[in-house]
Design brief:
Number of helices: 3
Order of helices and strands: HHEEHEEEE
CATH class: Alpha Beta
CATH architecture: Roll
Number of strands: 6
Shape: globular
CATH topology: Nuclear Transport Factor 2, Chain: A
Distance between the termini: 64 Å
Number of domains: 1
Largest sheet: 6 strands, mixed
Strand order of the largest sheet: 2-1-6-5-4-3
Length: 145
Amino acid sequence: MLKPATLFTILFSFQILSGQDLQKQNINIIKSLRNISNECIAKRDADGLSVNYLEDFVLITGNGSQLIGKDTVMVTWKEMFKSIPEISFVRTPTEISINEQILLAWETGNWTGVNTYSKGGNYSAMWRHTNSGWKLQAELFVALK
């Protein structure tokens, strides 16, 4: 029979490993959602992009313009795709951190642009876990190239 201290150590280790697995799982989900959003941009699919936005989504573009609200951002994507068909953006995460207590995530990385005012820069995103999964609360882009 296991001693209580040994049993506690095993259970505590399992909880830590389970928490780490959950962290990795959530990070992988956010990476997948980012890949899907990159694919939506490549396909000029504004509706597909907006699936990840909360209704009060806030976007600060690389040149400092501010867009507030899922519908506003979606209309802006549609207009951009129509007026500049060859425009392209790719966002590549370099770090994703999860706060399991309040179900928030922070993503940061680099973005590249083709046929835009800038060739790229850095970005950060705030994700919030909802009943519908991970959704974007805000994105901030800074043009550096």
